[in-house]
Amino acid sequence: FDETLFGAAWQQLVDRHSILRSAFVWEGVSEPVQVVQRKAVLPFEVRDLRGLADQRERLDAFLAEDWDRGFDLSRAPLVRVTVLRMSEERRIVVWSFHHILLDGWSVQILQKELLALYRALLDGTPAGLPPTVPYRRYIEWLNSRQDDGSAAFWTDYLAGVTEPTALNVDRDTGDTGVGEFEVCASPELFARARDYAKSQRVTMNTLVQGLWSILLSRYSRRDEVLFGSTISGRSIDLPGVESMMGLFINTLPVRGRLTGDLIVSEWLRDLQDEQLEMRQWEYCHLVDVQKHSRIPRGEPLFRSILVFENYPVVHKPSDFPEGLSRRLVNCVERTGYPLTLVVSAGRALEFRFVYDRSMFDAETIARMAGHLESLLAAVVE
Fold it and tell me: Which residues contact 243 (CB under 8 A, 6 or more apart)?
């Protein structure tokens, strides 16, 4: 593993993509602005932990220190990379970045390009990457979407909403920090869930949204619930949007109406049709969307969000240089919401609860995860 060339590959990425050279200025200006630097030097560091008896403690201390550093949004780049030498043939790469730069889709693109650049530097050949499509194209498209009828849609969609959906299990725990709890459905249940979704002509995302709606309805004791759903933001009519690096995801309200006599499969299809209609407005700013509800200013539109991870994995084993293997050790990300449910349905169906420990205890979240899994089994059976 050539650390020098690996660092050079990272710098080439920063040079190549304007979003990685971006800073954000909001103080002393009438409107916050994104500022792209012509040149930004990536903070790249190598630390040697080989042969140390307290290696694990040093690693943990570094990770805590790196997290606490955070980022100054007004100084580019909002990215840094540290390589930790753990043994002669093992390295841990710690890559930290602010979410304002990249979404999960972009992360896949970045990793593919990083491997291509690193291999090219090892071989002394051109990487042969296609020209980039700058993120500013998306910003220009976004700024052109004014007075387009979205206000009428959101006013109708949020009619009658006067308060965020209460969870009724949150309380002052006296604790601090962020907790995580993960549960993985059995392979058999996952297979049955996929078969059920396919037979009813709904996506796995719709199925999960339906389950979360039912669960919130039971917890809040309301027939109508509201939660946030994170969407990719890339189904817009903009050439090259699939290959752009930047932040496209958006979190918008999903309204679950559990009234009437519909059987679950019909109700799920109605929910999916509603989401498809909403897709034409998926670029709308959440702060603008909330203005069309009757929830008082300063109150959140929702207290929980659902993130269904379904972006394409664009790199493959053959992209790796010979003799180099890689695995994800850990990924830590945070949102500003009390409760976030992250669902992935790739090789397995995984539910990850990320929660504010000052409002929820571990037992409550574990019970909620159990209820969600029971609901899934009940629906697909």
Answer: 109, 130, 132, 133
If you average pLDDT over residues 252-280, what whole number do you get? 91
**What architecture does CATH give domain 3-131?**
2-Layer Sandwich (3.30)
Listed by start position, the domains of the chain span: 3-131, 146-380
Mean pLDDT value across residues 160-166: 91
Given this model, what pLDDT does residue 279 score? 87
Separation between Cα atoms, residue 49 and residue 67, nearest integer Å: 19
CA-nearest of 116, 118, 117, 82 to 1 is: 118
pLDDT in tens, 41-81: 999 999 999 999 999 999 999 999 999 999 999 999 999 99
156 CB-near residues (< 8 Å, 6+ apart) = none
Q: Angle between the 3-16 and 104-123 helix axes, to the nearest 10 degrees? A: 130
Asked if residues 228 and 252 have their Cβ atoms less than 8 Å apart, the reply is: yes
146-380: CATH superfamily: Nonribosomal peptide synthetase, condensation domain (3.30.559.30)
Task: Report which of 304, 156, 306, 155 is spatially closest to residue 231, judged by C-alpha positions.
Answer: 306
Query: Which amino acid appears at position 192 of this protein?
Result: R
Q: What is the pLDDT of residue 185?
A: 96
DSSP 217: H
